[in-house]
Amino acid sequence: MSTATASRPPAPTGLVWRQFDHWRARWRRTWRGSAITNFVLPVLYLLAMGVGLGAYVDSGGARASLGGTDYLDFIAPGLLATAVMQNAVGASTWPVMGAIKWDKTYHAMIATPLRTRDILIGNLGLIAARLTLTAAVFWVVLVIFGVAVLPWAVLAVPAGVLVGLAHSTPLFAFAAWLERETGFMLFYRIGVVPMFLFSGAFFPVSQLPDPLEWLAQVMPLYHGVELVRGLTLGTPDLLADLGHVAYLALWCGVGFLLADRALARRLGG
Amino acid sequence: MGAQSVEQAAAGPVEAPVEALVEARNLRKSYGALEAVRGIDVTVRRGEAFGFLGPNGAGKSSTMRMIAAVSPASGGSLRVLGMDPGAEGPAIRSRLGVCPQDNTLDSELTVRENLLVYGRFFGLSRAEVARRADELLRFVQLTDKAGSRVDDLSGGLKRRLTVARSLINNPELLILDEPTTGLDPQARHLLWDRLFRLKQQGTTLLLTTHYMDEAEQLCDRLVIIDEGVIVAEGSPAQLIRDHSSREVCELRFGVDDHAGVAARLHHLGERVEVLPDRVLVYAEDGEAVAAAVHEMGLSARSTLVRRSTLEDVFLRLTGRSLAD
Predict the structure, then answer these.
(1) CB < 8 Å to A3, chain B
(2) Chain A residues with CB inside 8 Å of B131's CB?
């Protein structure tokens, strides 16, 4: 056996990039499948709800309460935001618990020079790539359906990724802290489903009773829906959008700090 | 190796060689109120195969995790490769190989991919990693499985892949936590053979095991650890000499009360141990014991004379058998 091999001493930076081949190898196995799902689902949603249901909504004279748009235009950007959110939930819960509890790949990784924070950043990088794919494919569907108004609509993709990450980092923390997967089921039922339905994607939150409206506005998804809708339809409200971006960034940042702590505790105890 | 060090010495200043790769003094680990490791002293020297022998839950894995610089010590001092694991974890880990008790392989990747991506974590170039991966697949005899998915491998093959992975950075110190637990005899012997070769090549081995035969096969020196403390230290032969007789006569009687029978056997050997299903008589000459028992008119259902092992040492020191 060769004795010439010597692993390079770790530099303070650059450990994150050492994971590139790892995450790329994992991504390679799944991206085609997710690209197809990411395309087919939006098409079905937009046909059923935007075009089908939309015909009824529009004939009922709801344009005013929808901000003067067709129902298709109203829900399509909201569906982009919710699709990225759901993808973020999928990518940040079970796979994270699996890497801790089942496959234990994180345990293999911390036996190398990598630190838990490097692993967190690397994995979030993969998640961001997945979310970008989801948002971009959905965006193409919006263009095909004639919903997207350029040039602002281009920003709907990065905005969508931000919405996803605002959910990913806190969920990563949750997954790194949680002992058993049953917690995910519960979270999905009482968290994800209500958020999906009541965050302003399908109807304006102003239709809700006041306390529920306030609750909806605390959720990051509401801000994501508003942000993506304004950009997609070419009618951004710049000041409000700055607020949405800041609020989503806050969720990302706090979630990151929590995830960093939870992962270090879980792996390095 | 020898020629290489002469060259290095001639080439100029080199790092002072660290002869003690692991030095632990009064090392402790607690998880809340549970004290898993309760003050152990250990020195592992370069080039040796050092073992931690003890039952499950003795504190072996906790100790390994501290030495592998992934779990901070709760007390005492620890130096690994001359460095402090708390402050220089990445630098230490870059020179260690770790073969954990669970294989922790990436089941979504192929056998070869598992090695390729793992080597990159150590900062090795893609070309270097590819060369190492093929070399290691040959070493653990997995070359024809290179493209297989990890999920399709048997337990023994997964273990060999994990060992190969732990060698990807050509580590100075290889840490193996229960390397052959759960493997069939053939797979164990193959793995022992590979580990023995590594030792021959100068790799320092640090392993935990609850198999006494594994400890006897592989270890130059070992500590017996029980309930978080070291109860004995030495070479396998030394430990057996110090804590047991040369031979053991194992007697199984067809009775429930082995203790009652044992009371009549004390004069036959240096020591008598009573287990739930048999009596052990420790003596220099086991055959003589067996003959004497027969002469006493006691009919044992089965009689086995064997040499003392580390199992007997463990029984002597802790009053329990390793399998408990």
Answers:
(1) 1, 4, 170
(2) 2
Whether the CB of A100 is below 8 Å from some CB of chain B: the reply is no
Q: What is the pLDDT of residues B77-116, one digit of tens each?
A: 999 999 999 999 999 999 999 999 888 999 989 999 999 9
CB pairs under 8 A between A and B: 112
Q: Give me the interface pTM, i.e. the ipTM.
A: 0.89
Q: How far apart are CA B298 and CA B264, in angstroms?
A: 10
Query: Which of A129, A176, A125, A127 is closest to A17 using CA atoms?
Result: A125
Coil, helix or strand at residue B293: helix
Query: How far is Cα B170 from Cα A8, in angstroms, rounded to an integer?
Result: 12
Average pLDDT, whole number, for chain B? 90
Mutation site, A29, A34, A110, A266, interface B, largest B CB count within 10 A: A110
A-chain residue closest to B92, CA distance: A113
Supply the pLDDT for residue B1.
39
B294-318: pLDDT as tens digits: 888 888 888 999 999 988 998 888 8
Closest CA to B41 of B291, B269, B233, B183: B233
Identity of the residue numbered B142: L
B212, pLDDT greater than 80: yes
B125 min Cα distance to partner chain A (Å): 9
Per residue in B259-305, pLDDT (tens digit) is 888 888 888 999 999 888 889 999 999 999 999 998 888 888 889 99
* Domains of chain B (ranges, CATH numbers): 16-235 (3.40.50.300), 245-307 (3.30.70.980)
Find the closest chain B residue to A122 by CA distance.
B121
Instruction: Judge whether B320 and B55 are in contact, CB under 8 Å.
Output: yes
Q: How far is CA A59 from the centre of its chain?
A: 33
Q: Does A21 touch chain B (CB under 8 A)?
A: yes
Is A126 in the B-facing interface, judged by CB distances under 8 Å?
A: no
Min distance A262 CA to chain B CA atoms (Å):
15
Query: In the structure, how many helices (H) and strands (E) does chain B have?
Result: 12, 13
The DSSP bridge partners found for residue A242 are none
List beta partners, residue B25.
B77
Q: Is the pLDDT of residue B32 over 50?
A: yes
Q: What is the 3-state secondary structure (H, E, C) of chain A?
A: CCCCCCCCCCCCCCCCHHHHHHHHHHHHHHHHHHHHHHHHHHHHHHHHHHHHHHHHHHHCCCCCCCCCCCHHHHHHHHHHHHHHHHHHHHHHCHHHHHHHHHCCHHHHHHCCCCCHHHHHHHHHHHHHHHHHHHHHHHHHHHHHCCCCCCCHHHHHHHHHHHHHHHHHHHHHHHHHHCCCCHHHHHHHHHHHHHHHHHCCCCCCHHHCCHHHHHHHHHCHHHHHHHHHHHHHCCCCCHHHHHHHHHHHHHHHHHHHHHHHHHHHHHHCC
- Could you give the CA distance from residue B131 to residue A48 in angstroms, rounded to a whole number? 54
**Count of CB atoms situated within 10 Å of the CB of A44:** 10
Q: DSSP letter at B143? A: G
Pairing relation of β-strands B271-275 and B96-99?
Answer: unpaired
